[in-house]
Design a protein that fits this description.
Layout (H helix, E strand, L loop, with lengths): L4 E6 L4 E8 L7 E2 L4 H5 L19 E4 L4 E4 L2 E2 H7 L2 H10 L5 H13 L5 H7 L8 H15 L9 H27 L12 H10 L18 H14 L6 H10 L5 H13 L6 H12 L5 H9 L20 H12 L9 H15 L1 H5 L6 H11 L7 H22 L16
Helix pairs in contact: 2-9, 3-9, 3-18, 4-7, 6-7, 6-11, 7-8, 7-18, 9-17, 9-18, 10-11, 10-18, 11-18, 12-17, 14-17
The protein binds acetyl coenzyme *A (ACO).
Length: 427
């Protein structure tokens, strides 16, 4: 028997199967079972992929038990506190943090590429005013693929990077247009003088021709603190290894489809409330709960096995300890409490839920901690961003992760079409 292998015995026949163990640089080793079907004429069964590694990756690492998250080896805390979202994008895409000159060039390129083809603008007009911005966003990103049909010829590093830089730049413009279309108001073009995050806030909130806000809350220009909070939210969402939407992006990539179509599919997958749509559902749920006195009733409902009500913003497939992104946002929330006027009824309800859930045996025994979405909603509400834009904001942050994972997939020589098997129980 070879040393770094794992044996499986079929107790029906006594036959022994031996599989190599692949060691990870961090985290659990992986059993290489690629030949299992050929060897045994059986499939492995793992719905929801709870024990399955679907690829090899060098981008993001999560230790769910410790509550640890790293992009390219760098802890998320360091990136969120000391680096901008654009620096984080560059890190994810290339593996290195940019030096000053590289960052300046990258930033300039992202600003220049933020404009949309005039033809794409017209697409928004076909959607009803009440269209959810996630639907519009997904459709517009698919439509973007028709303007950049060079993906078959761009099969080298330079081509991949170009695809990536374009989509990272244009996503905020598309998201802001989707939002303004939902309000029935004219679009604001990107402003080359503004950085990534300020530009997005301006495209969402400015009156045409000026920088006065549509939703003024006592100040007329965008505050530095708002840019900082949103930039941090983008960084915290930038990648999260093989989550549901990234798995969809890689799955579409495996068929050879256009990368923007793969990203559009990722956007659709993210929309669901078990995934990125949870941020919108958290605030909707807090509004439904209505007051601190009602919290206990809803906690009881969340614990009732006969009620499908779940506390939105709690639990995670991988984190069985505090989500490190949630910790950063909780601290940011406390820090910005005064400046962002966070002391309101929603915040009191959220605090009460958090307090009960963190001390209740139902949540403790199932390791259900608040996740990132529990805190983003409160901060985004304070930034006067409407609920329907919460998941599009997640999309803006996550686009770099999706496209970086797409590039990694394309560069993997042994990559195969994603094609799982099934346990057939029909007639
Ligand atoms: N409220 C109450 N009970 C919950 C919750 C919750 N939010 N989440 C899980 N549970 C319970 C389940 O009922 C189950 O209990 P049981 O063992 O008695 O049957 C147990 O905890 C395990 O739950 P699963 O659904 O098996 O866990 P899974 O890992 O498959 O799901 C998920 C993770 C989807 C995130 C889940 O916790 C959930 O629905 N949370 C609410 C939605 C949410 O916040 N999603 C955002 C995730 S973060 C992200 O995608 C950005």
């Amino acid at each position: 028997m070879k040393k770094n292998t794992f044996s499986l015995i079929d107790n029906r026949t006594g036959k022994n199967y031996e599989y190599p163990i692949l060691d990870a640089t961090r985290g659990p080793s992986v059993l290489d079972m690629r030949t299992f079907f050929k060897d045994s004429d059986m499939f492995t069964y793992d719905p929801g992929f709870t024990s399955t590694a679907s690829c090899t990756s060098e981008i993001t690492f999560i230790d769910g038990a410790k509550g640890e998250l790293r992009y390219r080896g760098i802890p998320i805390e360091e990136l969120a506190l000391n680096h901008s979202y654009l620096e984080t994008c560059y890190l994810l895409m290339t593996g290195e943090l940019p030096d000053k000159d590289t960052l300046r060039d990258f930033d300039l390129e992202i600003r220049h590429r933020a404009f949309l083809h005039e033809g794409l603008r017209h697409l928004f007009a076909v959607f009803p005013d009440n269209a959810h911005p996630m639907a519009t966003l997904s459709a517009a990103v698919t439509a973007l693929s028709t303007f950049f049909d060079d993906h078959e010829t761009c099969q080298d590093e330079a081509g991949y990077q170009e695809m990536a830089r374009r989509i990272i730049s244009k996503i905020p413009t598309i998201a802001a247009f989707a939002y303004r279309h939902s309000l029935g108001i004219p679009f604001i073009q990107p402003d080359i003088d503004l950085g990534f995050t300020e530009n997005f806030l301006t495209m969402m909130r400015a009156y045409p021709g000026g920088k006065m806000h549509l939703c003024a809350n006592g100040h007329e220009t965008i505050k530095e603190v708002e840019i900082r909070a949103l930039d941090t939210i983008f960084t915290l969402h930038a990648d999260h290894e093989q989550n549901a939407s990234t798995t969809v992006v890689r799955g579409v990539a495996s068929t050879g489809a256009h990368p923007y179509v793969a990203i559009s599919s990722g956007i659709s997958a993210l929309w669901g409330r078990a995934h990125g749509g949870a941020n919108e559902s958290v605030i909707a749920q807090l509004e439904m709960i209505g007051s601190v006195e009602n919290v206990e009733t809803f906690i009881q409902r969340a614990k009732d096995p006969n009620d499908d009500f779940r506390l939105m913003g709690f639990g995670h497939r991988v984190y069985k300890n505090f989500d490190p992104r949630a910790k950063i946002l909780k601290n940011l929330q406390d820090e910005l409490r005064e400046e962002l006027h966070l002391d309101n009824e929603l915040m009191s309800i959220a605090r009460k839920i958090e307090e009960i859930a963190l001390s209740d045996d139902y949540f403790i025994s199932r390791k259900l901690y608040p996740n990132i979405d529990f805190y983003t909603g409160i901060i985004l509400t304070a930034l006067q961003i409407p609920k329907t834009m919460f998941t599009p904001i997640f999309v803006i942050g996550r686009t770099v992760g999706w496209i970086t994972q797409w590039i990694e997939f394309k560069k993997e020589s042994s990559s195969k079409i994603a094609r799982p098997r099934q346990l057939y129980k029909g007639n």
